[in-house]
Model the fold of this input.
Amino acid sequence: MLGQQTAADRMDHIPFSGIREIFEECDRLEAAGEDVVHLEIGRPDFDTPKPIKDAAVSALDSGHVHYTSNYGISELRETIAAKFDRDNDIAYDPDQEVIVTTGATEAILVSVFAFVGQGDEVLVPNPSWTYAPSVRMAGGTPVSYSLDPETGFQPDLSELRENVSDRTELLIVNSPQNPTGGVVDEDRIDTLAEFAVENDLVVLSDEIYEKILYDDSEHHSLAAHPELYDRTISVNGVSKAYSMTGWRLGYLGAPEELIDPIIRVRQYTTTCAPSLSQHAAVRAIGSGLHEPMVEAFADRRDRLLERLDRIPGMDCPVPSGAFYAFPTLPEGYEDENEFVWSLLREKNVAMVPGSVFGSNGNGRLRIAYSNSVERIDEAFDRIEAWLADQ
Ligand SMILES: Cc1ncc(COP(=O)(O)O)c(C=O)c1O
Done:
């Protein structure tokens, strides 16, 4: 048997994903016949809208089954450039400044590999989705800056200023946010721009949830800010808005000077995004087909907030976007890991411990409301019964 010593040293800092750990356990429970309520994974439960599926079937029938350009098919790049222009007020040249990737996950990985070297530091939100392992794989060090729950999870500028150093290469910003549901305010972007220019940073702006907004919240792309355009990589994808997580289709836009190193990394990762998914994405982007799903997410959010409100201690900033809530633990509980695992084992309700997303998630849970109102109710009926028995 091979020993642990055969893995590369950097693997000591690459943990098994905390989200996936729960998800794998759910798989095992379901294989054993258990009825698990999924509130752990950011995977919309809707089918992909039919016109999008039809576009993939038609591409399949037409023989689009081969490798494509590393940048992606030109029709999709044009669709993406038109979307950036229309929705985000950003001008990217579809031939030189757009890359289609295998999910936003790959867009983030190739951007990090292109700009982060051994010993470089990267400013990463705390809490945040799993950017830190990509930074570590590239040999860099993630340095966190807080998102403040008191301000609806706005980036804490004073912490950014304290934590930046002459080794800092990249600033990662995510809005709307996973795991908090926060949306970065427009005036905060002005300050982020000043900070990025002052410290000569490349900015990676992960905007994958841009279409999932509630009430009167607005999404503002960082690259639309004149000071940020030159230094920003805009990351997006179809997974979340169009319920296409399994199609593995993301993209990025950036000025040509930034694209150059990124495309060279991309040529050696997955070569090109799945061809059929690229054709489907041409139909999805700009179609408005996400709208009924966003309405459903709004109802789910409201129901979840009502149910959380009934449980003492579960305080939850109202999510403005994405499909995550980030409440504190019920009264009398302190350890989010113990809470999540006991709840899963005893009641088959799956959530993610907040600490998976960084130290500011200690004492919190991430609840994904990418599941129906009925399933949210089922989960909370079980939780209320379980808490009453403790
Ligand atoms: C903030 C954020 N960025 C990127 C991704 C990756 O999305 P994709 O399915 O396009 O790889 C996710 C998925 O959960 C996410 O939450």
About this structure: The chain has a mean pLDDT of 96. The chain has twelve helices and 13 strands. The first helix runs from residue 18 to 31. The CA atoms of residues 110 and 265 lie 6 Å apart.
